[in-house]
Amino acid sequence: MMDTVDSVSSRPFTALDPAPPLQTRIIDDKSPLCIPFILSKIAEYNNTLPHPFIIGLNGVQGVGKTTLVKALAETLQEREGLNTLVVSIDDFYLTHEDQLRLAEENSDNALVQYRGEPGTHDLPLLTSFLTSILSSQPTHLPRYDKSAHSGLGDRLPPSTFPPINDPLLSRPDHRNIRVLILEGWLTGFRSLPPSVIRQKYLDLKNHKTLSHHKLEHLLFINQQLQRYEDVWDQFDAFIHIDAQDLEWVYEWRLEQEEQMRREKGVGMSEDMVRKFVDGYFPAYELYEDGVRQGVFRGGESKKGRQLRIVVGRDRGVVEHMVI
């Protein structure tokens, strides 16, 4: 977890108690919006798209990404007959050894002491995986164990990676992948000119956690983010699950941890949750507006390929738009 200063949120956390499993309380009013959007984009490419359809999906922590991508994959698979693979960018974190090396090389930068921020992913591995998917070649899907090394995490052994697109070894729904959904909290974030980073850094009224870090450390993260943009450029469509108030991330994460304590007897405390989310919040403050404006580059030819869904405190949809 990130070792940072006090959180920006001054609101009291509220837990739903007693509560059914958290996933059953997250309203799936998003897939009825996403499925028609996805199918319309696939239809546009049906006669011209020579490779599997790649969807990027961004959602703040706790907004219900897991519930949504599960519903999307099941619907596309079972109703539309499209073998669909859901991939989390979390599975492409650096190995434990490489993360320790990154942290040591940047020992005064709190943003890269632990996994999460741009720069803590194995982009060559992700690029190689996507290249295999796009060319419909056999490959293996990496897996990451967040509980390894007392929660610091590590990549699982390659022998545990499930085979994909292998006609003999892959399970049936992992053969001939036609749709891939790449989901993650930073998926689609675009780097900013250094002058914009500096401007946001000095805007203490509207950007509350940026001042918790040195400007040079934020610029380092921004530079690392540039390396991700070749991946984002592979997307054929994009779905953005936004929140009316980003500070709800603190409350949503606490609800997840309380549910984990009820189910497994372990989970982060309120103070630990604050510090954990604080580690990600600078990136939200820097890059979320860019996602709202649209992640695609290319002008008029790329219009209409992004669906933005905005949710309220209960994670229910309050508005949506195609941009």
From TrEMBL:
<keyword id="KW-0539">Nucleus</keyword>
<dbReference type="Pfam" id="PF00448">
    <property type="entry name" value="SRP54"/>
</dbReference>
<keyword id="KW-0418">Kinase</keyword>
<feature type="domain" description="SRP54-type proteins GTP-binding">
    <location>
        <begin position="53"/>
        <end position="110"/>
    </location>
</feature>
<keyword id="KW-0342">GTP-binding</keyword>
<dbReference type="InterPro" id="IPR027417">
    <property type="entry name" value="P-loop_NTPase"/>
</dbReference>
<dbReference type="GO" id="GO:0016301">
    <property type="term" value="F:kinase activity"/>
</dbReference>
<protein>
    <submittedName>
        <fullName>P-loop containing nucleoside triphosphate hydrolase protein</fullName>
    </submittedName>
</protein>
<keyword id="KW-0547">Nucleotide-binding</keyword>
<dbReference type="GO" id="GO:0006614">
    <property type="term" value="P:SRP-dependent cotranslational protein targeting to membrane"/>
</dbReference>
<dbReference type="InterPro" id="IPR000897">
    <property type="entry name" value="SRP54_GTPase_dom"/>
</dbReference>
<keyword id="KW-0067">ATP-binding</keyword>
<keyword id="KW-0808">Transferase</keyword>
<keyword id="KW-0963">Cytoplasm</keyword>
<keyword id="KW-0378">Hydrolase</keyword>
<dbReference type="GO" id="GO:0016787">
    <property type="term" value="F:hydrolase activity"/>
</dbReference>
<dbReference type="GO" id="GO:0005634">
    <property type="term" value="C:nucleus"/>
</dbReference>
<dbReference type="GO" id="GO:0005737">
    <property type="term" value="C:cytoplasm"/>
</dbReference>
<comment type="similarity">
    <text>Belongs to the GLYK kinase family.</text>
</comment>
<dbReference type="GO" id="GO:0005524">
    <property type="term" value="F:ATP binding"/>
</dbReference>
<dbReference type="GO" id="GO:0005525">
    <property type="term" value="F:GTP binding"/>
</dbReference>
